[in-house]
Amino acid sequence: MSGNVRPKAVAVGVQLPGVSDAEHASSQDELARLAKTLGYDVVARLSQKRSALAPGAVLGEGKLEELVRIAAGCEAVLVDHEITPSQARNLEKATGQEVLDRTAVILAIFHRHARSREARLQVELARLAYLAPRLRESSAGRDRQGGGIGGKGAGESNLELDRRKLRDRMAELRRELAAFSRDGGTRRKRRAEQATTALVGYTNAGKSSLMRALTGSAVYVADQLFATLDTTVRALEPPSMPRILVSDTVGFIKKLPHDLVASFRSTLEEAREADLQLQVADASDPAFRTHLEVTRQVLGEIGADGVPVLLVLNKRDRLAPAQQEALAAEFPEAVLVSARVPEDVSRLRERILSFFERDMEEAELRVPYTRQRVLSEIHQSCRVLAEGHDEHGTLIRVRARPELLVKLRAALA
Length: 413
Ligand SMILES: Nc1nc2c(ncn2[C@@H]2O[C@H](COP(=O)(O)OP(=O)(O)OP(=O)(O)O)[C@@H](O)[C@H]2O)c(=O)[nH]1
Ligand SMILES: [Mg+2]
Prior knowledge:
Blueprint: E1 8-15, H1 21-38, E2 41-49, H2 61-71, E3 76-79, H3 85-95, E4 98-101, H4 102-113, H5 117-138, H6 156-160, H7 163-191, E5 195-201, H8 207-215, E6 232-235, E7 244-248, H9 258-263, H10 269-273, E8 276-282, H11 288-301, E9 309-314, H12 321-330, E10 335-336, H13 342-359, E11 361-368, H14 372-381, E12 383-389, E13 393-400, H15 402-412
Parallel strand pairs: 1-2, 1-3, 3-4, 5-7, 5-8, 8-9, 9-10
Antiparallel strand pairs: 6-7, 11-13, 12-13
Helix pairs in contact: 1-4, 4-5, 5-7
The site of magnesium ion (MG) has 4 residues, from helix 8.
């Protein structure tokens, strides 16, 4: 992707039965945004209504000829579906261009945005899982296949690995990731006594922006898809009493490759183990209802759907007052906010606090004078309602999370 000239691409989509015109168009818009995030400029779109994705050919003959004409001025053909190696090969042969399917585009973005070691391993595992079935075909006499992920040599060395090496590498990656997951498990366990809330939702909904606003942290915010791949955890700022932790997580998208979801399972553990999920949607996006569905579906797939949810409709600043009123009526339980409006962020903060407030219990603890260390822990982690002293020690009345009270009582027993 040299200089200012972005490589041109043509986007191809097949409208299958049951997919409305609006959904089809929105999926193509999304592919164009994904392509843009990757550095391509989608200069043309081509779509065809078909009853199914035919095994060998994505497009009918007439459409294919049209594509060949259009693609002549482009560097890549992007297909808004996950296609088979032979479909990709046929398109490559016909157009003479590199062909990337939706999965390859998403994987390439993840590859580019992965920062931490864990995210890199997760992405590599998903890339290899994508390549594995394609490698099988390529050994039948082709040295280049399926339009190597992201093109430009990035995936090429992988293609040279034989299947056995690939399997070994995948097993190695799984082992390394399991170690991360164990460490993460311990970390999360230590946090279990603390109140935690996770920001989840479609990519670009504004999760990281809300994370910044709620915690005063400097997490990365960008108008691109999948800006965040790592989970960040920070305490609510200004601090609440007791402390509430907020985590920012990787975003979701329609037709998210399954292997990618599987390999990000441990990252998404924050969403599964949170006490409260803040499901964030970009309310200014006409497709946000579908985005919410996709979010809930992926959360279900990773077993993170049993957690209490607070719906956060973001980017209110982009909506007219009448639209906002309509949304408030349609989603009476939601908080309608803009991450850019400090009063809105305070309102969201209040909703979070009151959720945890409901969850807390009141208790009276007696702390002997010999156990002053526990007393300081109580002061750090509970809301102290009253405190008195007698000849045996301190009598303290607190509000705290039930899990924490169990731990404190055990420490005082
Ligand atoms: N107008 C407006 N823009 C917003 C608001 N919140 C976020 N944005 C913009 O939306 C874009 C995406 O925001 P992020 O916070 O990076 O979104 P995200 O959900 O973390 O996205 P991923 O990490 O890609 O999943 C950025 O350009 C933000 O500046 C808002 O309330 N109003
Ligand atoms: Mg983000």
